[in-house]
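Aim 2 progress update. The chain analyzed this quarter is reproduced below.
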Amino acid sequence: MADVNRGNRPLSPHLSIYRPQLTSMTSILTRITGNALLISALLVVWWFLAAATSPEYFAFADGLLTGFLGTLVMTLSLWGLWYHTLAGIRHLIWDNGIGLDLETAEKMGWAIIGGSLVLTLLTIVII
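Predicted structure tokens:
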């Protein structure tokens, strides 16, 4: 039988007292960057398809992707790629049972954030 009193129950106390931790935020950001990379990959595929379609259509697609908004999206995608790569390496380390204590996990979280920013800047400077 269905519980008809479901709407009158109080919420769990953890919703009002929960403080986000670095490890949970980096995990959520890993999922977000993974999905964002899929979208940016589709934009690159669209750019290639436009190049194969016609010069006019390519000029349109190229204008969008090399304009301010396109450059911003691709730069953020580059950061997302580095972030997602470093987070994947962190998970490989964790899979081996290394760095699972809270202090090391937080250091690795900050290393991923800082490392992804540094690698993004280095990539932009080199390219």
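The two ends are 64 Å apart (CA to CA). The chain is about 80% helix and 0% strand. These observations will guide the mutagenesis experiments scheduled for the next reporting period.
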